[in-house]
Design a protein that fits this description.
The protein is α/β, with parallel strands linked by helices. The chain has helices spanning about 5-10, 25-35, 45-50, 60-75, 95-105, 120-130, 145-150, 160-175, 185-195, 215-220, 235-255, and strands at about 20-25, 40-45, 80-85, 110-115, 135-140, 180, 200-205, 210-215. It has a single domain, classed as Phosphoenolpyruvate-binding domains (TIM Barrel, Alpha-Beta Barrel), CATH 3.20.20. The chain binds 3-methyl-2-oxobutanoic acid. 3-methyl-2-oxobutanoic acid (KIV) binds near residues 23, 45, 46 and 182.
Length: about 260
């Protein structure tokens, strides 16, 4: 049965149904995930690492996000599509951030995601008041990788955990419709999930969150490099793809393909 997700139904799933969400960066995979019933597709800035070959998410450009968002939105019939605003697209002034967020919705996104807690609450408020649904992202925020000195679990000390807890409450108050909790201790994720009325979407944050993210390339086993310990591979498409490429090259060499 087809069920078009929207911001209201996503919010209403809290406490009723756990949601397995993933990323998508093109129409081909977005269509597969959508047809398989994935409720929410994030056009993640993780595309910098999964698709574009960078070591971090920082180089991703607004044009790349817009083009990927449009492709995913064309293919996703039922899934909620969220555009992840890339580094630099909301740090250089609120008016530019608003314009970029508007462009994400014009490209077909149902909402945008911003990294940061209390420090982006002004923007979250302005965007939601302008009709742009915002998914917040607290804990380990990959666009701050230079500040952390690597992709490291955050919130391990009492003080750091309290700051992340306060960030989650602040983004809810500012109007975010959901909050991503990335790489935080699972007891902290559980406390936040109990304290906020909006859904929490965990990634490396334990099982208690209302929903989960798993980056598509990790989920499908397309990523042959380092994967975080929390990742579960549901397929090994890298092996499948390499074996198909190998057989194709061999068959052309042997004259077995194409046939007359
Ligand atoms: O870009 C990304 O993949 C993310 C994750 C939290 C899913 O932001």
């Amino acid at each position: 049965m087809s069920k078009k997700w929207n911001i209201a139904s996503f919010r209403a799933a809290k406490g009723v149904r756990k949601l397995g969400c993933t990323t998508a960066y093109d129409a081909a995979f977005a269509r597969l995930a959508d047809e398989a019933g994935v409720p929410c597709l994030l056009v993640g800035d993780s595309m910098g690492m999964t698709m574009l070959g960078y070591d971090t998410t920082l180089p991703v450009k607004m044009e790349e996000t817009l083009s990927a968002t449009a492709a995913v939105a064309r293919a996703a019939k039922d899934a909620l599509v969220i555009a992840d605003m890339p580094f630099g697209s909301y740090q250089c002034g609120d008016d530019l951030a608003m314009k970029n967020a508007v462009d994400c919705l014009k490209a077909g996104a149902d909402g945008v995601k911003l990294e940061g807690g209390a420090r982006v609450c002004g923007l979250i408020k302005r965007m939601t008041e302008a009709g742009i649904p915002v998914l917040a992202h607290v804990g380990m925020t990959p666009q701050s990788v230079n500040e952390y000195g690597g992709f490291k679990v955050q919130g391990k000390t009492r003080e750091a955990a309290d700051a992340i807890f306060a960030d989650a409450l602040a983004v809810e108050k500012a109007g975010a419709f959901a909050v991503t909790l990335e790489c935080v201790p699972s007891d902290l994720a559980a406390q936040i999930t109990a304290a906020v009325k909006i859904p929490t979407i965990g990634i490396g944050a334990g099982p208690v969150c209302d929903a989960q993210w798993l980056v598509m390339h990790d989920l499908l086993g397309l990523n042959e490099g380092h994967v975080p310990a929390f990742v579960k591979k549901y397929a090994n498409l890298a092996e499948e793809a390499k074996s198909a490429f190998r057989r194709y090259v061999e068959e052309v060499e042997k004259g077995e393909f194409p046939q007359k």
